[in-house]
Amino acid sequence: MFDTPVDAWYVWVGLAVASGAALAVATAIPAAAPPDATGAANTVDRVAASQHPTVAEHPLPGAEALRMSEDTLGLRGPGGTAHATIGHGPVTPAVSDHRLGRVLEGDPPERHFDSPEAFGRVATAARAAEPVWEPIDRLTVRRVTWEDVDVVLAG
């Protein structure tokens, strides 16, 4: 009495719609997980919280690009995009200025800047710049102190 007639057209239409929805959901799931932005932000926080000149590197498996501001970072990869907040800042993104990038990689700041004030002005300008996506495979964070200028570089 309450059986569904299998030869009714609406049963077949409903089955087709349900199958199509299940296929759409299955193909929308990304094949990889998004990159670990929280782990990268924790690395930045450890260096930024230090009272001494410090350097740390964080591998970024699954990340193809980084976008960083003075208090957030984003990672983009095949599995999607992930964002995290940096608790200790401000952090200076060193990807857009080649001189800051050299200091990030270990050069002393006095090799690329005329004075601590010039170093501080360039760092301030880098923090104020609009964040852009930059290609990356690892994150390097360095705390640099030159006289009274104390900067945390990341890139």
Mean pLDDT: 87
Outline the low-pLDDT stretches. none
Count the beta strands. Answer: 8
Order the strands across the largest sheet as they lie in space. Answer: 1-7-8-5
| SSE topology string | HHEEEEEHHEEE
* Tally of separate helices: 4
Helix content: 25-40%
Report the portion of residues in β strands. Answer: 25-35%
Structural class comes to alpha+beta
The coarse silhouette is: rod-shaped
C-alpha termini separation: 70 Å
Instruction: State the oligomer.
Output: single chain
Q: Strand count, sense and closure of the main sheet?
A: 4 strands, mixed
Number of domains: 1
Estimated radius of gyration: 24 Å
Task: Write a structural description.
With 155 residues, this protein is an alpha+beta fold. It has one domain. The chain is 34% helix and 26% strand. It contains four helices and eight strands, in the order ααβββββααβββ. The strands form two sheets. A four-stranded mixed sheet has the order 1-7-8-5, with helices on both faces. Strands 4-3-2-6 form a four-stranded antiparallel sheet, with helices on one face. The longest helix is centred in the N-terminal third of the chain and has 20 residues, at 9-28. The protein starts with 8 loop residues before the first helix and ends with a strand. The relative contact order is 0.19.
